[in-house]
Amino acid sequence: MFDGLKKKLNRFRNDVEETAEEKAEAAADEAEADADAEAESAPADAEHAAVEPEASGAGDADSESDAVGDADADSEADAVGDAPADAASASAAVESESESAATPEPDSEVDADTDTDTDEPTDEPAADAAEPRESLASDAAKAALTEEDDDDSSGPGRLRRAAAFATGKVVIEEEDLEDPLWELEMALLQSDVEMQVAEEILETIREKLIGETRKQVQSTGQLVSEALHDALYEVISVGQFDFDQRIAEADKPVTLIFTGINGVGKTTTIAKLARYFEKQGYSTVLANGDTYRAGANEQIREHAEALGKKLIAHEQGGDPAAVIYDGVEYAEAHDIDIVLGDTAGRLHTSNDLMAQLEKIDRVVGPDLTLFVDEAVAGQDAVERARQFNDAAAIDGAILTKADADSNGGAAISIAYVTGKPILFLGVGQGYDHIEKFDPEQMVNRLLGEDE
């Protein structure tokens, strides 16, 4: 059932998944290549920035060592000489040597030898002068590290962003959906989905996918499946209500009227529902309001006898409203739960037949008027449902021959077009071959999630 449409929806899911994944892989590869190139240049730049200050610092250290060495040598020479210099001369000599040196190193022993008048060092400012050189080397190292961090934001950092893109961030953009959505639109129209319904499905998919993100546990296919599920469910489930609950809560007898064109399976559908209600524990009576078609009484009588049900019928050419009214009277007198009333096949353009429906509604006051058509009729069934609803206000639809329909266009479109739900699907010739329509199950069937 609906295998053709199912394949087309699956093709769309695969197309979007392939497009998004290919884009993610390409972005990751490009970012990785850029990161490798930038990472190769980053260490060289950092090393160059750090080496120059270190070299300068080393030269200063050598200068300090030479200055201290010269000062010590002179001091020893003065001590060994026959005429030692006085304290002031020694201090002057040391200061002279210190001034000529690039970076004098403070020495508490030298201070003690050269200055006996004070306990405080005399060359403390010179010690302070050495600190900026140490800070210079530290600043250069910090600059190199900062430069590496900046490179990381455009290199490895970019790679991380690309990896996040490929594994869970934004995966679908508008251009990614352009071709797949066009293909999906053509597929829906070819499957007899009404154009307005197809456009609504596409718009919902756009809203749910463009700029969307996915969780780490999701694949793009899962994301697309969720969007398809939501888009289909929104159009299929319009007007849906719990049919069984409605029947259970209604005052008895409940009267159901069936309408539609000739040859779509109204009478057989009535017989199937008689069996369906029997399984639910309800009693039923059939009433043949199709009083103009030759052989109509014989056809419905065969079903009634096969099911063991009472049939109310008048002679050919009688008043359909009177026949169904008699059926309701019989149900009330015999404590029957449900009246199933057949009507003549008609087109919305047949004023006389449409007037009959209006009279039935006025005389009988049915609880539900159900439109019956073939699922294989596709867009014709959708258009007829719209026209019947405009003329006689249907409450729901039943699609026959759904098992033979590979397209599913009518099943998707009727509820959205009429605002009234599909209630049952006919799926075979037997009395038990009828399924209560479930929008969630329908969507899962189309997306292959029920297998």
TrEMBL record:
Membrane topology term: Peripheral membrane protein
Subcellular localization, as worded in the UniProt entry: Cell membrane; Cytoplasm
Segments crossing the lipid bilayer: none
GO BP annotation list: cell division; SRP-dependent cotranslational protein targeting to membrane
Biased segments, Low complexity type: 80-105
Ranges where the record places region Disordered: 1-158
PROSITE patterns: SRP54 (PS00300)
Entry's EC annotation: 3.6.5.4
Acidic residues composition-biased segments: 27-39, 61-79, 106-126
Complex and partners: Part of the signal recognition particle protein translocation system, which is composed of SRP and FtsY.
NCBIfam families, per the entry: ftsY
Family according to the record: Belongs to the GTP-binding SRP family. FtsY subfamily.
Protein name: Signal recognition particle receptor FtsY
Gene behind this protein: ftsY
